[in-house]
Design goal:
Length: 275
Amino acid sequence: MSQKEDQSKVTQRAEEFLHVFKKGAEFTQQLLRENEKLRFQLVQQEEQSRLSGCAGQAMREVESLKAQVAELEREKQGILQRIERVESENIDFANRYVEIEAENNSLANLYIATYQLHSTLDFRDVLKTISEIIINLIGGEEFAIFLLDENSKTLQAVAGEGVAVNRLPVYSLGEGPLGVVALSGESFFAQSLDGGSSTSDAPLACIPLKIKERVIGVLAVYKLFLQKRHFADIDYELFTLLAGHAATAIFASKLYSESERKLTTIQGFLDLLTK
């Protein structure tokens, strides 16, 4: 074989080797590119999975926070309701305190008034003091004091305010509201106080003046001052206390007046005998 042929074969093999080498290099490059793409896709999938997990965790945390917010809202509503109840109770206590304070003041004023009532034995002064108590403590604008005549068994007006005492009718026991109260010994109070009444046949209140179970007269209230629209609980207590004290004071003053008259008569008779 000639030297040219040998060189030609060597060259041919070298070219074949280079061709195979290039093919291998290209295949390797292609594998690297595919590997890079796969790695990138894997990274993307891992990132997506991580993000999906984070989103799920975030959603769970959001749901948990919503539940906590709802629970806190329920607790807040409960606290607000308790606060409203406490505020309502405080208002009730404050109103009750004002009522009790007013009742205490009224009772204190009544105590002072009854002290003045029992500090005199003059019949006219007693009636005047009773009238002042009715005006200042109960708010009576028109009223009258009737006393029972034991002989005729009739009620006759002896004092009053805002009414013509001498024009008031005389009541027999059991006659009209006053006669019924005098006979039964039980107080009478009208259901409605709107506007009051100036009619002697329609009093707003009739209170018996009693010493124990003995009725000696009746207090009749016909009209209240404009600022007073109804009887308060304290008014019933004041009426009851006033009736007892007024009856005692009137009875004592009448006894004193009668004893004074008798003493004067006896003294006059003795003076005539000694002359």
